[in-house]
Amino acid sequence: MFVLVNLKTYPCDAVSVAQAAADVAADTDARIAVAPQAADLRPVAETGVETWAQHVSPHDHGSHTGSTLAATVADAGATGTLLNHSEHRLKLADVDGGLRAAEDTGLETIVCANNPRQIAAAATLGPDMVAVEPPELIGSGTPVSRADPDIVREAVAAADEVNPPVPVLCGAGISTGDDVEAAADLGAEGVLLASGVAKADDPESVLRDLVSSV
Amino acid sequence: MFVLVNLKTYPCDAVSVAQAAADVAADTDARIAVAPQAADLRPVAETGVETWAQHVSPHDHGSHTGSTLAATVADAGATGTLLNHSEHRLKLADVDGGLRAAEDTGLETIVCANNPRQIAAAATLGPDMVAVEPPELIGSGTPVSRADPDIVREAVAAADEVNPPVPVLCGAGISTGDDVEAAADLGAEGVLLASGVAKADDPESVLRDLVSSV
Amino acid sequence: MFVLVNLKTYPCDAVSVAQAAADVAADTDARIAVAPQAADLRPVAETGVETWAQHVSPHDHGSHTGSTLAATVADAGATGTLLNHSEHRLKLADVDGGLRAAEDTGLETIVCANNPRQIAAAATLGPDMVAVEPPELIGSGTPVSRADPDIVREAVAAADEVNPPVPVLCGAGISTGDDVEAAADLGAEGVLLASGVAKADDPESVLRDLVSSV
Amino acid sequence: MFVLVNLKTYPCDAVSVAQAAADVAADTDARIAVAPQAADLRPVAETGVETWAQHVSPHDHGSHTGSTLAATVADAGATGTLLNHSEHRLKLADVDGGLRAAEDTGLETIVCANNPRQIAAAATLGPDMVAVEPPELIGSGTPVSRADPDIVREAVAAADEVNPPVPVLCGAGISTGDDVEAAADLGAEGVLLASGVAKADDPESVLRDLVSSV
Prior knowledge:
CATH architecture of chain A: Alpha-Beta Barrel
Binding site for substrate (chains A, B, C, D): 6-8, 138, 173, 194-195
Number of strands of chain A: 8
Number of helices of chain A: 10
Structural class of chain A: alpha/beta
Number of domains of chain A: 1
Radius of gyration of chain A: 16 Å
Protein name (chains A, B, C, D): Triosephosphate isomerase
Oligomer: homotetramer
Largest interface: A-D, 39 and 39 residues
Main location (chains A, B, C, D): cytoplasm
Pfam family, one (chains A, B, C, D): TIM
CATH topology of chain A: TIM Barrel
CATH superfamily of chain A: Aldolase class I
Order of helices and strands of chain A: EHEHEHEHEHEHHEHEHH
Enzyme class (chains A, B, C, D): isomerase
Shape of chain A: globular
């Protein structure tokens, strides 16, 4: 199971969450990554944790003031990027463009989507993984694996039909090891988390619980 | 072959192009549709021509000032709608939402996309048809069927892999019956046109030539 | 006082609301306008009521699939247009562009904004009117004139500093003649309404009450 | 005169341009700042050069995946931010929101706009400075001060009418000390540059020439 901690724009200390994640990953052989804001990629990567960007632009070098290029986040230490998170939905053409830009710089990619049909569409574009996160469950505290297990099963089935099959992560409301185990039972190969870790008093113990069943 | 004339926001007389299209369709049994701006749907539909919207919102009834609903264009006489034209690209989630809204009101749908990979993604979302239009050829006067035949072949192959297969239209630079024939030879089941008809001195004779080989 | 009824994308019968508005306007000399979806502009205008668009594109004629031009809504019978409604917020450059497009075709304009500072910015761009609608009060049933009278006073003060001064409308939660009177007392020269009329069982009697104090 | 070097998403070495700018600023007492991509803010700020962000989100802390907060760029060492660059145009409400977010974290602000009317609107929102950059001259090699001196004069006049007056920078095509002097003669209090420095073989000598007349 791959555990990706999305720090969004929470008021957490990105480096200390990253350090906690690096420590737990080292102790447990679990795969844990942290996705901070672009301006925090360097100090997060310096902790040694697997570091992901929250978004990259479909653009290549050029006149694109205010964009964050795949090449630049890679240079800052990121080894992967989310695309099309439900808080940063992209045009279909820009999901494709962002994937090509990430691919050209060797970044791994996860495309997020809201439902199994969009998961199928995202998977055909060739990302390394896809993630299904029903928007109404994000931040709800109710894990998608319990609130809507069928959406995870159907997303896995949809991504399996693409050739080659694309691994599915699930997100929204995940906060415990039991939630991770339930996600795995539904066929997910990883989970996206955010507030459950980023807003925790003790992110390290939450992470240890999360990966305890892996 | 399905010939869809997109009037964009050209300064043409929408009703007279529509009347020409209705006349040619009646004489030839060719399937010809006209897609005017939303405010012109009613008078275009009143000519009896098959009428399409250029876009519909993913929204249902509610508080969405400035949006054009699928139900409203259907009520105005449209029987189909384009989605995700390269001049009006949509978020992946809104292509999906627009398709569901169109489906709910019985509108036929064509999702446009730039390349075979995006065509595959669009096709998995379940439109009635897809259309490949390389943006760099739109309005170029060079038909896609000659400038880049492989993109049409690959788009047809991509849409064929979806189950059930989705018919492919091609657009960009089409203006003659020979272009339509070349498109058909590449596997396209229709063409999108715009300036070639909308800006013609005599739209009716252009349309007659276009469908002459069908 | 100018009463503008925004039909948004409500499931109401646009023509029957328009007919009611036309009847009340004729009986009372109140200025009442109705803003339907683009596809409904023609039948609404045919009732004789003053007809407004909910939005127009900043573009001129050209290759802009899915846009609604100022010239096209004018041709369909609109004599004015909203711009930058909080449900259809525009880029600063497109507020400016939309105003220029509307001006070129003789449409009257109202630019909406959320707060007095944005009202000042909007007013400097030269619209015929501005409208302040705090987004949190839209559809709340609590009139802005009671919930937040200062925002109306400050918007009027902000628009008065521009040379020449720009009349201010207020919206959000307006549904009775008392609300209209309260808005006038705060310096507003008109009101924007939506659900209060569009969702009423008897739009005509709501409109008669609304203009009773004018 | 304030010289702001916008590195956009050019393939330059941000740190070496920043070092050159820091050196020239130290030698000459000219005010020179560098605006890199978000992921490069930290190493740029570590050179000691005045560091600006190219954009900040209107959001506060919360669930906004993929956004770059004002507080985060300030923490990374930025002391100012551009907003509404013509390559990253913002909704009117988001220019306002971005300004408030920047203000709350003590960042200086420059709002870009295309023409004097939009400059007036931008200035009423209360930025520290505004910048007029006709989009058609960006990257043209022809300085706005020569190609269209009236637009600079009119922008200065527009910003002067706001109370208190807002200093105007100009951009587009600036690359020499003569261009800077011409901009100053037209009333500009600074210049925005990009490719002229970022793509130069020797950015330091370009910068020395740029500030030679200041």
